[in-house]
Amino acid sequence: xxxxxxxxxxxxxxxxxxxxxxxxxxxxxxxxxxxxxxxxxxxxxxxxxxxxxxxxxxxxxxxxxxxxxxxxxxxxxxxxxxxxxxxxxxxxxxxxxxxxxxxxxxxxxxxxxxxxx
Length: 117
Prior knowledge:
Elements: H1 3-17, H2 30-39, H3 45-58, H4 62-77, H5 83-99, H6 105-116
Helix pairs in contact: 3-4, 4-5
């Protein structure tokens, strides 16, 4: 049996056991889930959820996040571990999604939502 066949069997069984697993990170769309996952490294989900409320109120898509800038992102997440690096990573991730892939936020969100289904 090949790895891909085993992976398919495991995936099928996991879907039976956990048809709709809860996502512990608060998010409003696929992009904010991606940001929350980046922020969750070396931090608790609870703390990430507390701090992302204000962040996602002002920046819930890549364009808004880039406009917020590294310092603006930092101000919202400064109480998380590694917040200096995380604010740079989120900024660069957002910028990359816009520039490299030439994707507008609505198209990006639809694409990312495919992974949540």
